[in-house]
Amino acid sequence: IHDCLRGRLDADKGTITMSGISKYAEQLTNANRIVMVACGTSWHAGLVAEYIFEELCRINVEVEYASEFRYRNPVIAPGDVILAISQSGETADTLVAIENAKKQGAIIMGIVNVVGSSIARLSDTGAYTHAGPEIGVASTKAFTGQLAVLTMVALKVALEKGTITHERFLQLVRELNAIPEKVAKILEQNDAIKALAEKYKDATNCLYLGRGYNFPVALEGALKLKEISYIHAEGYPAAEMKHGPIALVDSELPVIFIATKDSYHEKVISNMQEIKARKGRVVAIINEGDKQSIALADDVIVVPETDEILAPMLNCIPLQLLAYHIGVAKGFDVDKPRNLAKSVTV
Ligand code: F1P
C-alpha cells in the first residue's frame, strides 16, 4: 500500500497525482459507463470499485468476468470506458476482452501490477498498482493495491465531476494515507489468527457473508480459502442468505462475517443472530468495542476502524491470513496451490 500510494497521494496538501490517467481524464470523467473486466481476485476488486465509483462519482458501472465478456457480443457505446484489472497483466481472458472492446472503439484503462505486461501495453491509459511481485500464485497484496489505486482514481474523477465535496475528498485522502499503519496493526495479530486456523482447519465447508462494500470481501475470503486450503467455501451477500445458503447452516458450519462498523452493521448483526439461532459457528471481523458482535460470535478478529469505503482494504487481510494459516496447518504448499497458475494465459 505504501508503494502504491507513494508519489501519488499527498495527504498534507490533500492532493492525488496520477499522471498515467491524465491523458484520458476527460473521457473518464465524462464516461457514460465504466465496464470493469477482470478475473478472480481482480474481479472482486472491480466489484468493490463498482460500489465506490457509483457512490463517489455517480457513474454507471458494470463489472464483468472477462472470461464471459470476451465470448459475448457486448454492446459498447460511445463514451464507454473499459477498465481492465489484472495483477499479472497477462491473463488471456482479460486481454482478449479488451482487444475486442478496443476494436469497437472503447477507451481502455488498465489497472495492472506488472510493468510492461501485455494488458498494460494494450491499454490507452491506466495506473500501475506498484504492489511489488506476488510471490505466491494466489493474489493477496495485489488486491489491496488494486483497491488503493481504484479508490484514488474514483476520488480524482469525483472531484473533477463535482460529485464529492472538497471536505469529503480531504477526509478520504487522510484516511487512505492512514491505511498502511492500520494494515501493520492487523499483521500484528498473526498469532491469534494462526490459533483460529487451528480451530477451524478441519471444516469441510465455509460460508463468508458481508454486505455493501464488504460483500466482495466475502467473495474474496472464500476464494482464498478455496485456492490455498482446498476447503469448499462460498461468499454471499449476507442479505441473500435467506434465499438459499441458510439451508447449509448447522453446528458444523463456520460462517465468517465481515461485520465492521458501517451503514449495514445493524443488518449484519441480525444475519449473525439468524446463524446463531441455527447453531452455526460464527467468526466475525469487527471493529473495537463492537459489543453486539462479541456477544454473538464464537470468535472475533478486531481490525482498526476506517471509512466504510476503504474498509475492504483492511478486512481482506485477516481473511487472507486465515486461509494461509489453514493451508499451512494442513501441510499444503500455499505458494503453489495445485492446479493454479500465476497467470492464466490460455
Ligand atoms: C487473475 C487470477 C488471480 C488468481 C490466480 C489466477 O489474475 O484469477 O486472481 O489469484 O492467480 O488468476 P490476474 O489477471 O489478476 O493476474
UniProtKB/TrEMBL annotation:
The protein's role, per its UniProt record? Catalyzes the first step in hexosamine metabolism, converting fructose-6P into glucosamine-6P using glutamine as a nitrogen source.
- The EC number of this protein is 2.6.1.16
Give all residue intervals belonging to the SIS domain. Answer: 24-163, 196-337
Q: What is annotated about its quaternary structure and interactions?
A: Homodimer.
Q: Which organism is it from?
A: Flaviaesturariibacter amylovorans
Q: Which reaction is recorded as catalysed by this protein?
A: D-fructose 6-phosphate + L-glutamine = D-glucosamine 6-phosphate + L-glutamate
Report keywords, A-Z: Aminotransferase, Cytoplasm, Glutamine amidotransferase, Repeat, Transferase
Q: Which residues form the active site?
A: K342
As recorded in Swiss-Prot or TrEMBL, the protein's gene is named glmS
- The EC category is transferase
Is Repeat tagged as a keyword? yes
What is the protein name stated in its UniProt record? Glutamine--fructose-6-phosphate aminotransferase [isomerizing]
Annotated compartments:
Cytoplasm
Q: Which domain of life is it from?
A: Bacteria
